[in-house]
Amino acid sequence: MSEATQESSPSLISNLIGIIVAIFEFVASIIRSFTGSAAAPEPTPPTNQTQFAKSRDPNYQTLAFMSNQEPFGKDRKVK
Fold first, then answer.
1. I need a surface site. Which of 35, 53, 63, 79 has the fewest CB within 10 A?
2. Cα–Cα distance between 25 and 15 in angstroms, integer?
3. Hey, where are the domains in the chain?
4. Cβ distance 63 to 71 under 8 Å?
5. What is the pLDDT of residues 12-59, one digit of tens each?
6. What is the pLDDT of residue 10?
7. What is the Cα–Cα distance from 62 to 8, expressed in whole angstroms?
8. Residue-level pLDDT at 21
9. pTM
């Protein structure tokens, strides 16, 4: 009897694996039907021009444009 259970055990395991795979494929098909299969977006072509971010504030100035001001002030006292 132990030989019969050992022989049927691999087929039982393979049947369980088959059932699990079938359930997984069923769930995947349901998810696929809701989400659809959208194509991947086209990649943007590379450009040789460097584009810098611009501030939305029209009064924005960087230190490079503030040459008439010193960053630490003239009257800064160093001890």
1. 79
2. 15
3. 1-33
4. yes
5. 899 999 999 999 999 988 888 777 666 667 777 766 666 666 666 666
6. 75
7. 79
8. 96
9. 0.36
